[in-house]
Specification:
Elements (H helix, E strand, L loop, with lengths): L2 H18 L4 H8 L4 H22 L16 H14 L16 H8 L4 H21 L2 H5 L1 E4 L2 E4 H25 L12
Antiparallel strand pairs: 1-2
């Protein structure tokens, strides 16, 4: 087995292992019917979208500027980061950023990080629509082509997996922020 195959297998195993404890019933059902790795990734992106949007809604707007300490992202910053990543990760896979976003990561991060609660929820939906559309409509040839992740060369399929792992990290960050602020993630409210 080649080095690339081993690395991709390790990424897949890591992502699936991380998902196992946080998978919702809807995602479990979607994954059970998924016929390809791409289908699993699209279902995962849809699940992340739902969780980011539910948390964005659950926080009171006055909590959007809360941060655990100085020089650390606020709730608004983490939500804005999810928007920016959903808009811009596909640029490393050969796609243009949507016209509504900035093609520069820093500028897009600043734009998304200045949104109100209502605008943020809407923008999460729009940006995740874009990401789902890109990943869901990628041909196998495109998935196997050369791509990048923050300038680091790798096959597109590996970059997609790495990007999803990164977004899960920020979802976990937002869940920690929620718990710290006595905000119960809505999908886990019945399991308290």
């Amino acid at each position: 087995m080649g080095r690339k195959a081993l690395m991709c297998g390790a990424i897949v195993t890591t992502i699936l292992g991380c998902q196992a404890g946080s998978e919702t019933q809807a995602t479990a059902e979607a994954n059970a019917g998924a016929s390809t790795w791409k289908d699993v990734q699209v279902a995962d992106i849809e699940d992340m979208r739902s969780k980011f949007e539910q948390l964005a809604e659950a926080f009171d707007e006055t909590q959007y500027d809360w941060q655990p300490m100085d020089s650390v992202r606020s709730v608004r910053d983490v939500l804005g980061l999810a928007v920016a990543e959903a808009h811009l990760f596909p640029t490393g896979w050969g796609y243009d950023a949507p016209a509504s976003s900035s093609p520069d990561f820093g500028t897009e991060l600043q734009r998304a990080g200045s949104l109100s609660k209502a605008e943020m929820i809407q923008e999460l939906d729009v940006s995740f629509d874009f990401l789902v559309d890109v990943v869901g409509n990628m041909s196998e040839e495109e998935r196997m082509s050369d791509g990048s992740y923050f300038g680091r060369a790798m096959p597109v399929h590996a970059s997609v997996a790495t990007a999803m792992a990164d977004m899960h990290e920020h979802l976990g960050q937002l869940i920690a922020y929620a718990r710290t602020n006595q905000v119960v993630p809505p999908w886990s409210a019945g399991n308290q």
